[in-house]
Amino acid sequence: MFQILVVEDDKDLNRTVCAYLNQNGFEAQGALEPEEAYDKMYETVFDLIISDIMMPGTDGYEFAENVRDMNKEIPIIFMTARDDFESKRKGFRVGIDDYMIKPIDLEELLLRMEALLRRAKINTNKKLEIGKLVLDAEEHSAYLDGEEIVLTVREFDILYKLLSYPKKTFTRTKLMEEFWDAESLSGPRTVDVYMTKIRDKMSACEDFEIVTVHGLGYKAVIK
Question: Smallest Cα–Cα separation from 157: which of 140, 144, 145, 171?
Answer without folding.
Answer: 140
